[in-house]
């Protein structure tokens, strides 16, 4: 049965703004296999899959489904042919229940919605594939892992035979990932064709039968997962330049004085709910404190509170001996508390403004940038030119809007601005999210350099490998609390970290098991 | 499926970059298309369109009288456009320049009525201040509602226009009516000391300098100043403004106050420089046309002056069309509407381009 070819894409070419996102790409998928698509950001994975699910039309090339050529004019056509995609963001309606989300966009549209029949089918499907979920609960009440199950179930509900999973594990705990993989294996046995998009080598090895590596829009090769090594794949992904693991802990200075101290702080989120519930932590000179956790457990609110951007309702925050509990964002910057927000374009930059105007963003109120009522733009431009050079930022010019820059260069610009002067504390939230291998390495090196220079660094990330690589201390955040701290964390702690991420404290300290 | 049917494709693509030349080209193309479709409309009305356009040009720009009339219209248009342009810089949609303009006119008329003195300097200076404050508070109220409760300023500023216009009517039909006006709704003529000088025996008045000075100040403050930088950041990305410690809420109120104050000042200039008495017909929609002008000028203060002159010519040309060819006022308004329509359509091409490809098979 394994040889039935479900999808055959030949010579796919797609050009955006004179850049070939896909250049003569061949890709095929057989029934009963998991075919991984591997590549850096911008390698063309999403473009290829967007073409397969009808979102884009290729400039050239053909798509065959089970031997018949098809042309998809819209995602609807693709869904009708049994192609389903589970996006990173699940595209569910939070206020509706699980079954209502399923009924939406269903092919058989009746005037009256059949609640009972729909629920019955959902229960049947979830039992068959091990995707536990209650059809009657509203989506907003579900955890991220559960929402993903709903998104997969929705595709099965729409009778998909071909399932595209776009970076499905990036939002999951290790345990949830394992569960997802069981489901995928089960579906594989039933003859589904599954495309698994990822840039995590380990997972790709664990789950896939074949691996296609894309680089700069072209296929580097399609290989059997059993015949290839991780080194080989990494090299294929980034090209002959090599990955170059970054050197860690060459000169481990002992941690110095405490700089930023939070005592039992409580912070609310935008909806007015308690997001950070009594967190205490100490950031010391020459030390990186890592915080792991599934996103949405209060990390963002914690970072904003420490950066002076969010009201601290209870507890105290000290900068060395000064009480900065109610200090403004500007005061914190002046003290040297720098912040690298998770949302680069939404918070960290003004995308429509140029490089110099973005360099000024967090310093314009002080000389030498400010001169009375005016901003000394000559000075800002000089500084920007210097930062562009020393941080190796690729930009057509200083007066170019930063939305024109790639994600990596945008992040470099933020780093340059935040780290370049008067840096005492760095709060970095998902600093390498969505970056390619080289930019990721650059950001990590800069964070390590900041630590070497005496900076107290707080690193909030979802990437466990990154946290283990950089952190001197690691804490796990779950539902607004810190679930205990691990010193000098390494791979042997992964099991324990995973349990803490799921809210199970492995030892007595920190966090409660029961929650309201 | 059907390969033969898909020979060629029209593709719409986002553009990354647009040059100044391309931008100008798009604007010119929009105006030409607007004039062409205007010609079609005039044709349908049974008028020779080229003759009509010629008449508009002749009335507005061909002689001293025409140019001076165009300049007289340019003054309120430019000041209202500078007013809304400042608000738009912060992405605050002040649609209420018309009302703020009327409030400015009302306030200085009230001043003339109740606090009259013989000294022109005292009179004009006080009228400037009262009118600016009146327009400013009229705008700031909408700004406050937005800052405090996030009330949509488009709705509030628009609604407050009607309040201002009805207030105006209340006074000119009521207690402020000139007893010697034979029942016409208008106040008595302003005394000498409350008038701005006019030049060259035309209706061009000193308000022109107001417009130029305001444009210069705005250019300096918005493009070079710290505060201008702050409001641009707040407008472009409010969350980045929080990150930079900018107090956006306070700035919304301040921007709406200043925007309203400029429009209010325009109202004073219109009263003291041109009409010299309050009457209902003086607000003919400059505050709304200002939205088009500010947008066309890409909010740049100096460009606003030039575009206002163009629209002034359109107004005066339209008046000539009414007189010489007996066409209704609506004709000009339709022409303006067409220009706006095509310009907004042209906006699309600023961020997208359309390419036609032919598939070879």
TrEMBL record, chain A:
Which GO CC terms are listed, alphabetically?
Answer: plasma membrane
**Which key words tag this protein in UniProt?**
ATP-binding, Cell membrane, Membrane, Nucleotide-binding, Repeat, Translocase, Transport
Membrane-topology descriptor: Peripheral membrane protein
User: Cross-referenced Pfam families, in alphabetical order?
Assistant: ABC_tran
Q: Which SUPFAM superfamilies does the entry link to? A: P-loop containing nucleoside triphosphate hydrolases
Q: Could you tell me where this protein is found in the cell?
A: Cell membrane
Gene3D superfamilies recorded for this chain?
P-loop containing nucleotide triphosphate hydrolases
Query: One GO molecular-function annotation for this sequence?
Result: ATP binding
Matching InterPro entries = AAA+_ATPase, ABC_carbohydrate_import_ATPase, ABC_transporter-like_ATP-bd, ABC_transporter-like_CS, P-loop_NTPase
Residues forming the ABC transporter domain are: 7-241, 260-504
Q: What is this protein called?
A: ABC transporter ATP-binding protein
TrEMBL record, chain B:
* Topological category with respect to the lipid bilayer: Multi-pass membrane protein
Q: Name where it's found.
A: Cell membrane
- What are the recorded GO MF terms, alphabetically? transmembrane transporter activity
> Has the keyword Transmembrane been applied to this entry?
yes
Q: Which GO terms describe its cellular component?
A: plasma membrane
Q: Which domain of life is it from?
A: Bacteria
Q: Which InterPro entries match?
A: ABC_transp_permease (IPR001851)
Entries under Pfam families matching the protein: BPD_transp_2
Name of the protein: ABC transporter permease
Q: Which organism is it from?
A: Acetomicrobium hydrogeniformans
